[in-house]
Each structure stands twice: as C-alpha cells, then as structure tokens.
Amino acid sequence: MFTSLAQAGEEIDASIVKQAIVWLVTLQSGGASPTDERACEAWRAADSRHEQAWQRLHGLGQDFRASSNVLASPLLRSVLRNSERNNRRIVLKSLFGLALIGGTATVVRKQPAWQSAMAEHQTATGEQRRIVLADGTRILLNTATAIDVHFDDQLRLVILHRGEILIETAQDEAGRPFELATSNGTIRPIGTRFTVRHSDRPSSTAVAVLEGAVRVTPGQGNSVRINAGEQTHFTELAALAPFALDDSAAAWTDGVLVVERMRLADFVTELDRYRPGVLRCDPAVADLLVSGSFPLRDPDAVLALLAETLPLQVRTLTRYWATVTAAPQT
Q1: DSSP one-letter string for 244-297
Q2: Is 154 exposed, middle or buried (0-12, 13-18, 19+ CB in 10 A)?
Q3: Which of 36, 65, 86, 95 is the most exposed place for a label (fewest CB within 10 A)?
Q4: Boundaries of CATH 3.55.50.30 in the chain?
Q5: Cβ atoms of 220 and 208 closer than 8 Å
Q6: Measured at the alpha carbon of residue 104, what is the angle toward residues 103 and 105, in degrees to the nearest 5?
Q7: What is the pLDDT along the chain (330 residues), one digit of tens a residue?
Q8: Cα separation of 86 and 104, whole Å?
Q9: What fold is seen in the domain 113-244?
Q10: What's the chain's Rg over C-alpha atoms?
Q11: pTM, to two decimals
C-alpha cells in the first residue's frame, strides 16, 4: 500500500521534497563519499520533516519496483501536488533517473549525446589533460571528460557534458563574467579554484570550492553561494545547502584516489571510471570497508593490492571485464 505525503494531515513542504530528491540522486549517483553520506544523515536529523520526506520518497522507489510500473500512485500524485506546476516535470525526471519509476522510459537531456561525443576537449578513460583557455583560465580534465568552450563579447562559457574538471579562473581584461554550465544548471565563480563533477545516471552535478566562492543556480531552483572549504550537489530541481568539504575531494588532481572507510562497492564504482571496460563488485563483498591512498594511473595494480590486503579475488572474463569477489576459503 502506498503512503501519502499528507499522512496524518501534515503536508511536507515542496522545498523539502526537492531537497530529499537531490539527496537520493546524490547517494545513488555512484560518486557519493562518506562525507556526503554524513551530510545527508545530518540533514535528515535536523528536522523531522526531512526524515519524513526521505523515508516516503525512499519508500516510493520500493513501491514502484514492486508494483508493475504503476505511475499514478497516490504517493506520486502527492509528491507532484507538493511541487509547483513548472517543476513537476523536473520531479518526474529526477524520479525516472533514480530508477524509482520502472519501465523503459528515457530521461530527456538538454544536450543530445552527439554534443558530448563531438566536444572540443575530451579525455579518454584513465586520461587526464591540462588546458589553458584564451583568457588564461586553467582547466584540468579528469578521466572520460568532455567540455566545450564558448567565448564571446558578453560571456566566457564552459559547458561540461560529462566527467570532472578542476578550474582555476583568470581575470578577464574585458570584464566578461565566467560561467560553467551542465544540464543541471550553472556555476558562476568569484575569483576561484573549484572542481565540478557531472554524472548522468542519474543526472546531478557536484561542486567543491577550494579557493574563493561560486554561485550555483539550478535550472529550476534558487541560487546558492558556496564558499571556500564547502561543497554541494545539485540537480535541475534544486541545490543542497553547502556542507563541509571532503579533504580528499580534489585528490584526483594529484593522480590519487583517497578514501576512508568507503564501501567496497562504492570504491569499485569509483575505480571503474579510470579503467577501460567493465569493473563490477560481487554483492556478497559489497559492504567491506576500504581505506587508503591509491594511484589512479594503474587501476589493475590497485585491484591486485586489494586482493593482497582483503579476503578478495579479482575474476576476469577478458581483459576488459572483471569482477571483485570473495576469495575462496582454504
């Protein structure tokens, strides 16, 4: 049976519902860190309505998966009723992207796939590359990243189609503002150094500010200022309130992956970004915890180290298909 968001006569504010959706997107994006998880727990604990929205949206996914793809449940109608009319499409997109709604529906993107494939600057899986723009802005592209650069008389625009970048903005002699855009919204820096990661399954953007500040504006939400030492995640629907920056957020810029008590399943998902082919984790060992600093240039060496230090083995079908499983008992 579905549960209503207006249960017991108490409706949950639309802004809280949006925040809950962004947190769900963040934690199911495959790139969530322990810092993200702790921040979500703090958000849930800060207000009983936060926990209500979290539990009911989380339950929505379970209900959909068990209900033969029924779209018009009372709970979904209640979610939409608590959202402004022009945001209902965005709520549905977020739920589709989270696989909360079954079936074969496709989330509509603002930018078609060919734009990413034909982007001006790209990196292959496992590659990092530094570029300098015409205004002196420096960008480091991480693995499997694609960006376009558009400068005109009014604006310096960088579009991040996929992947992750570090930006060090330069002052512009013509006084043009700098803007970074993803399919979720825009980021305007204020003399800053920051990282941006854009994921499309589901669609979300993570921003971490190392120096200066930025202003994040979701496509359909309110702007949020993020200062040095803070980070946030946003979708087209809303941006989370800024929270403390994970110390290891920019470790990739030095070619290392730094983790502390990360679930093995999440660690393997992150390592998979840097390794050609398919890398998977057996659910039987998914909850083992991993800590340490690992070189990103050689993912196979990292896998070998895991097998030496944890009760694991790496099973390979081919060079491009590997699964981390439990080591056989002796």
Answers
A1: EPPTTTTGGGGTEEEEEEEEHHHHHHHHHTTSSSEEEE-GGGTT-EEEEEEETT
A2: exposed
A3: 86
A4: 255-326
A5: no
A6: 100
A7: 333 444 434 667 777 887 888 888 777 766 677 778 888 888 888 888 888 888 877 666 554 444 433 333 444 444 444 444 444 454 545 554 444 433 332 333 344 455 666 889 999 999 999 999 999 999 999 999 999 999 999 999 999 999 999 999 999 999 999 999 999 999 999 878 999 999 877 789 999 999 999 999 998 888 999 999 999 999 988 999 999 998 888 999 999 999 998 999 999 999 999 999 999 999 999 999 999 999 999 999 999 999 999 999 999 988 899 999 999 986
A8: 24
A9: Jelly Rolls (2.60.120)
A10: 21
A11: 0.74
The structure tokens 């499997």 sit at 144
Report the C-alpha gap between 122 and 189 in whole angstroms. Answer: 22
Nearby residues of 63 by Cβ (< 8 Å), 6 or more positions away? 2, 73, 75
Q: What contacts 316, CB < 8 A, 6 or more positions away?
A: 322, 323
Domain range 255-326, CATH architecture:
3-Layer(bab) Sandwich (3.55)
Contact assessment for residue 288 and residue 264, using Cβ atoms and an 8 Å cutoff? yes
Are 75 and 39 contacting, i.e. CB atoms less than 8 angstroms apart? Answer: no
228: enclosing H helix or E strand: none
